[in-house]
Amino acid sequence: MPPATPDPEPVPMAVSPASQPLTQGTTKPKRLIVLHIGDPIKFNPKTYAEFGEAFDVIRPSAAERERGEFMRALRERRWGDFSAIFRPFWGSGGEMGKWDAELISLLPTTVRVFASAGAGFDWVDTRLLGERGIVYCNSGLAAAEAVADFAVAMIISTFRHLPWCMGAATVGAISPSSAAEDAFRACHLLATAASHNPRGHVLGLIGLGNIGQQIAAKMGSPAFGMRIVYHDVERKPAALEIQLGATFHSTLDSLLAVSDCVVLCTPAFPDGKPLLTASTFSKFRRGARFVNVARGSLVDEDALADALERGDISAAALDVHAAEPRVNPRLLRMATDLVPRDGGTSPPGPGRVMLTCHNAGGTVETHEGFEELSMRNILAVLTGGEPITPVNLRFLKKREGGE
């Protein structure tokens, strides 16, 4: 199954929320209602003030956002016939749970746009929203630089075995002993035999949306000198491929066969099924590396652990996990095992997995961008303009009257 493309149309690398005009349309907005779910805004009070001048903004309480009460309020039309849903933060506003048919069916027919923080949208049925004439806009553009920077660190980690190097240096602080000193010496002597420079190696990107494009630009630059290949459901324009030095592979198997490091940077599927399974990992180039900055649900983590144990994959770095906040116990052992086996050359080997806590997009600048971009998307749609970061236009059905 091919990955979904993060953006229906490629977005130029230079585009940022701040570079967009506040109101893109030509129609003066009426006093339409916007439902603000989640915490109050924190970073863009000037834009929010203009937002409030253009629309009647209603923010349900935390209790009203719990699924049962939220659905009851929708049935009662407690918040009127609102035209937009605004979720500026990833950590709040999701108390009602998955936006599935049960929930979406209760929305008033006046809703035209749902703009949310975050790049992923596996928690919302964007197809069903589109079929009801509702544009869903994510905020992946605002997080793209932060995620790409984090991916760079993870790619380097898979080539240089940073979990082993860092763990062996700090284990003595936890339990000072001769064993800790042995771990330090072993890493100093043996990590070199397993480490490589990224330069000249092939970086395979699954997904070349905003995040994939920035990873390609960073790792394909003279600073790192990697060769970039990518797979996506739609090939990108030739001009973009030339700009990034990226070579398209029409099949995932073809990409995996040539890649020294594979980065997963595509949205999760609404059905929650994994893209990378035991069958897929068997197609990886022997000794290749794997990085996931997309969604944990896209990876069969036990199959990944099997591939690591066999040595089919030499190292991995995961920022996202299938059962967050729980981490796969087999991968956790591989991340914390600091004892070389058979001279450090046989699987599973020490510190072969880097694990982080879904941190890739988490910067102050990202959250500021989530707020701003979500408001700009709503302003654009409700004033007759075009959405900035829509993800479901291919499912969108026009409303009666041609709206």
TrEMBL record:
Keywords: Oxidoreductase. Residues 1-11 have a biased composition (Pro residues). Residues 98-392 form the D-isomer specific 2-hydroxyacid dehydrogenase catalytic domain. CDD domains: Mand_dh_like (cd12168). InterPro entries: D-isomer_2-hydroxyacid_DH, D-isomer_2_OHA_DH_cat_dom, D-isomer_DH_CS, D-isomer_DH_NAD-bd, NAD(P)-bd_dom_sf. Coiled coil: none annotated. Residues 194-334 form the D-isomer specific 2-hydroxyacid dehydrogenase NAD-binding domain. Gene3D superfamilies: NAD(P)-binding Rossmann-like Domain. Pfam families: 2-Hacid_dh, 2-Hacid_dh_C. Residues 1-25 are annotated as: Disordered. SUPFAM superfamilies: Formate/glycerate dehydrogenase catalytic domain-like (SSF52283), NAD(P)-binding Rossmann-fold domains (SSF51735). PANTHER family: 2-HYDROXYACID DEHYDROGENASE-RELATED, D-ISOMER SPECIFIC 2-HYDROXYACID DEHYDROGENASE NAD-BINDING DOMAIN-CONTAINING PROTEIN-RELATED. Belongs to the D-isomer specific 2-hydroxyacid dehydrogenase family. This is D-mandelate dehydrogenase. It comes from Humicola insolens. The lineage of its organism: Eukaryota, Fungi, Dikarya, Ascomycota, Pezizomycotina.
